[in-house]
Amino acid sequence: MYEIEFTPEAVTDLRYFRKFEQNVIIDAIQTQLPYEPTIETKNRFRREPSDLADWELRIGIFRVFYNVDEQVEIVSIERIGEKPNNIVLFRGQEG
Predict the structure, then answer these.
(1) pTM for this predicted structure
(2) Number of structural domains the chain divides into
(3) pLDDT tens readout for residues 78-90
């Protein structure tokens, strides 16, 4: 089982959302990422190019960008945003 860590920037991103949205995001992270976070699925895939992070998790309009250290089994949540259209927003600003 992988340990989940949040960067300070990701914590700030998460606090931007309403409590209900925070719960949806955290539930999805706890369900999707502790086991096999590098297995691609419909909602979890490797990013190309990997400017923010190597991996992306889709949760409805929300996006979780993360990196995986397979040696020590840690998933590092780098940023959390939303993508209502084709633009990813972080704390309401284009990122």
Answers:
(1) 0.94
(2) 1
(3) 999 999 888 999 9
